[in-house]
Amino acid sequence: MLAAIDWRWIFLVNVPVCAAAFALAWRVIPSRAPHVTTRFDLTGAVALGALLLAAAWVLTSLGRAVDLVTIAIGIALVPAAVALVRYESVQKDPALPPALFRVRAFSAACATVAFQNLAMYGTLLALPVALAGASVRSGIALAAFSGGSIVLAPLGGRAADRYGPRWPTLAGALLLAAGLLPLAITAAQLPLELLVATLALAGVGLAFTFPAMRLAAVEAVPERYASLASGVFSTSRYFGGMLGSIAIAIALGPSSSVDSLRGLFALFAAAAFAAAIPSLALPGQGVAHGDPMMEEAAG
After folding, report:
1. 225 with 123, same domain?
2. Rounded to whole angstroms, how far apart are CA atoms 292 and 278?
3. Domain check: are 83 and 202 in the same one?
4. pLDDT digit string (tens) for 207-257?
5. How many domains does the chain have?
6. Are residues 291 and 269 in the same domain?
7. I need a labelling partner for 180 at 20 to 30 A (CA). Which of 69, 125, 244, 282 fits?
């Protein structure tokens, strides 16, 4: 589509996918009356959103000249974050319970997925730049990267159920790193066959990590906080992706070179290796449910 028509048309691919997802959700997800058990923390939610927005603004400004306003916002972020943590700590139903991060498995899952998505989204965005002028080649390479994770994701879920989240996540992070290393060495200037093979290997790593990490994040906390834990986990994912895009903006700037691309892919491979470290803190076989100590830590 990129080669034959225009790059803007690529966004139309999402329309039938979203329509199918909407129709399926409408048909499959049961309808039920809301069961209110907590009070929505509007103040905390608005403050958290403003804090994340300000942090994103400061981080995205690193790729260009930084003005005094951005510096002031960056300095103000620290006391603002401290104030938010103190406020949320005394709320009965906080938007983001700080004590959740005292649950070891939950914190490990959030850290792992942040590093993982830094590597994944960074690669997805940087690869077309490295293969500039070869849209078909880029499409094939990205399809290999995404295809492995899509096809083998059910296998990753079964592995997490059987062996616990720790080992599938660790193995997946190492496979992702191994798949990205050739890109760091060659700046992604590989023959198409080798490029597809190495990205398919990285995709297999993603297939093993995502189901296991989400399982660990949700099941490590009390059931009352399961939905909130899922949301915080997703926020960690997008934060990692944002860091990946910022790294691209800083490294490539107005133009790209072989050295800058090599350094960029080396960063993404290092992030994948880094994801393996907190994954060791994930639970092994048998995730605890409703542990009294977790209940105390979360509220």
Report:
1. yes
2. 24
3. no
4. 999 888 888 888 888 887 888 888 889 989 988 998 898 888 888 776 678
5. 2
6. yes
7. 282
